[in-house]
Amino acid sequence: MKHFWRILLAVACLAIPGRLAALTLDDTAPIALSGEPGKDSDIRTLTFSAAEGEAKATLQFRATPLVRCTPDVARIDPAQVVVEPKAGDLTGLVYELRIRTLPERYGNYHGTVTVANGKDFKEKLKISLQVRFPAAATLAIVPPIISLPVMRSGAPGTEPLSGVPVIGKAALFVSGLPDGVALDRYALSPLMSARGYGDFSGEKRLSRDKDGNWILQVNALGVRPDKYSSYARLGVEGSDRFVSVPVDVLVRASPWCVLALLCAGIALGRGVKFMNEHGKPLLAAQRELGSLRTRVALLNTDIQPQKPMFLAQLQRMIDDGKLAEFATALPDAAGRVALLEKIGHLAGSALASAALQQRLTRLAQQVGLGGMLAELEMQHQQLLRDAAAPVASDGLELQMKMPQDNPPQPGRWKSVRPRVLAAWGWLLELAGVVVLCLVGYEILYLGGSPTFGAHFSDYFGALVWGLGADVAARSLSALGRAVPR
Questions:
Q1: Nearest-CA neighbor of 169 among 231, 233, 226, 218?
Q2: Where is the signal peptide (predicted)?
Q3: What is the per-residue pLDDT across 269-301, written as a single tens digit (0 to 9) for each?
Q4: What pLDDT does residue 8 have?
Q5: Using only C-alpha atoms, what is the Rg of the chain?
Q6: What separation in angstroms does the CA of 123 have from each of 18, 22, 31, 394?
Q7: pLDDT of 424 over the 90 cut
Q8: Stronger pLDDT, 304 or 36, i.e. the higher one
């Protein structure tokens, strides 16, 4: 019985000669190897058992090519698979497995190593090799900062007018990403407003297209104009590394809103012009009466009527609200003031004697107290004749305006310009308004802030620009309308 266990072991070895006994790995699990490109893989120790007396040199190893299937097919030559006895082992049954000089093509490779003991018995060992991406390698997303200008309105015609879409898309490319390394994870942090308006309320998505490219897409329909910032992160397959890139979404207002504000500014300018020219009838009447009083106040004190009844009557009409009667009486009052000015010119001339001065003073008082304007005009003409000055009738009335001997004649264009501007001034004014508004649209919206509408000053600036465009166009079109004196 002392040789029983030895005989039993010999019988077992004859039944399964050279059977592989992996002491450190499960029989069914592949042998896992890993390493970085350009270097050897790590080493796995394989321990075999053989029947007593089995020759050590009978163990033979034959490898198949290691194949990578994704993202595309790549192979490692079987000659790079090395199985050699472990240094220092005296049994001859312990071997070391490694892969020499790993390729630059990253990924997972799979293959087998066949083990034979020289008696036509073979055992296959499965190998799984991972060529890792170096931890020190630099990865970066291109572009380094993603900036997406978008617009909040989807009304017809907004995209051609603004030049930016409602749905913005940006492709993310990772520079330095070698062959075989894939990005299999992603994360997009919340898009937060720069002015504290909260999270981006529109749809946002980071996904892959059919070609495997990562696409960032945002939909700004109805989102409040502002700058929204975030970070997009992509994870490297088979590792815990992430590549991140800043994301800025720039939301601007609708171009129709800008054009509406420009039109509102033009309408405001037109309203101001209408009020200046027409205004309320009461204000217009007060302005006319004030003009007549100013002209009377500028007369010589000897000529000024003590009680200008016609001005008092006009004031009572305004106070009583009888504006129709005021409009009827206004021409007569203007004629009386003009007659008083003529009397003042004659009284201030060197041709007026003392007797004539008294007669002119009495005539001025009659003009102020009332009387028929036509009769008062006749009396003034009689006073001119009594002055016995042949040039008085022509010279005294034009005393403040001395003619030149040879007045310059206007050129052809200067003589025609007032008529042209009077006929086509409205067209020139319209063209000026359109051109100035287009310039303002280009400066304020297209070439201005990419987040137009985030500040109240943006809307106010468009309104003021429309008002200024109307005023400037009217001022430019009015140049040269008056006949040069």
A1: 218
A2: 1-21
A3: 888 887 776 657 777 788 888 888 888 777 776
A4: 45
A5: 52
A6: 9, 11, 14, 138
A7: no
A8: 36
> Which of 465, 466, 476 lies closest to 429 in space, CA to CA?
476
- pLDDT on residue 15: 38
Question: Residue 460: what residue type?
Answer: F
Model confidence, pTM: 0.57
Q: What angle do CA 262, 268, 272 make, to 5 degrees?
A: 145
Q: How many CB atoms lie within 10 A of CB 117?
A: 20
Closest CA relative to residue 299, chosen from 238, 244, 368:
368
Query: Tokens 């102020």 — which residue?
Result: 368
> Among 288, 287, 392, which residue's Cα sits nearest to residue 348?
392
Q: List C-alpha distances in Å: 222 to 162, 181, 202, 217, 251.
A: 16, 39, 7, 16, 10
Secondary structure class of 330 (helix, strand, coil): helix
Q: Are 370 and 309 in contact (CB under 8 A)?
A: yes
Q: Do the Cβ atoms of 8 and 73 come closer than 8 Å?
A: no
Contact 343, 380 (CB under 8 A): yes
- Token output for 81: 């698979």
Plot region of 479 (φ>0 → left; ψ -120 to 50 → alpha; else → beta):
beta
DSSP labels for 235-252? EETTSS-EEEEEEEEEEE
- In the three-class reduction of DSSP (H, G, I as helix; E, B as strand; rest coil), residue 77 is classed as coil
Domains of the chain: 4-131 (2.60.40.10), 140-252 (2.60.40.60), 254-279+412-485 (no CATH), 299-395 (no CATH)
Identify the DSSP state of 320.
Answer: H
